[in-house]
Amino acid sequence: MPDSMPLRLVLASASPARRKTLQAAGIEPDVLVSGVDESLVVADRAEELCRELARLKAQAALTRLRPNDDQRTLVIGCDSVLEFDGEILGKPADAADATRRWKRMRGRSGVLHSGHCLIDVGEGRRAEAVASTVVHFADVSDHEIATYVGTGEPLAVAGAFTIDGLGGPFVERIEGDPGTVIGLSLPLLRRLLTELDLRITDLWTKVAPGNQSVERLG
């Protein structure tokens, strides 16, 4: 496939945070939600679970793609889980579950794992890996927990917290790439692209004010 062929990145995720992470890095992805039922996938280790889910999401999106001979299409699937006290924690089941988790996590630490699976559709090649970051939680009060859970944000994210949203003040510090906690590690994406003989700069775009048009920079 010619090197001059434009690259298209398809994000197999409904996560606004993942999309914003890519956009802030100069990459304008297409979004195709995978529809994978995460509850049906089990694994003994957090790294294995998020890697498998990332792979399934990328493959599910791949089956729904329409071929385009004018573009080289890549699909990226991601999934995140929190490893805490030896447990694998995805999204909370409900507000009560989120509240229980936060009362356990406050003042302590966990490891956020994000699996990434990148597929080069035309070449039929795949690269995948897991990024892990240690998260140190603040010793938040019962009132802060109740108010935060009441916003609904913790119910929509792995581990029941964010660092790029309302949950940011409740995380004292992290050890690792912030993108891992948000759900997509840009340094890891760069390495996966390299494995497929591609460059992340080939995905850079320039968006005009008002998102009227997109000009390829690479």
From TrEMBL:
Molecular functions (GO terms): nucleoside triphosphate diphosphatase activity
Highest taxon of source: Bacteria
Record GO biological process: nucleotide metabolic process
E.C. number(s) listed in UniProt: 3.6.1.9
Keyword Hydrolase annotated: yes
Catalytic activity: a 2'-deoxyribonucleoside 5'-triphosphate + H2O = a 2'-deoxyribonucleoside 5'-phosphate + diphosphate + H(+); a ribonucleoside 5'-triphosphate + H2O = a ribonucleoside 5'-phosphate + diphosphate + H(+)
Name of the protein this chain belongs to: Nucleoside triphosphate pyrophosphatase
Organism expressing this protein natively: Micromonospora deserti
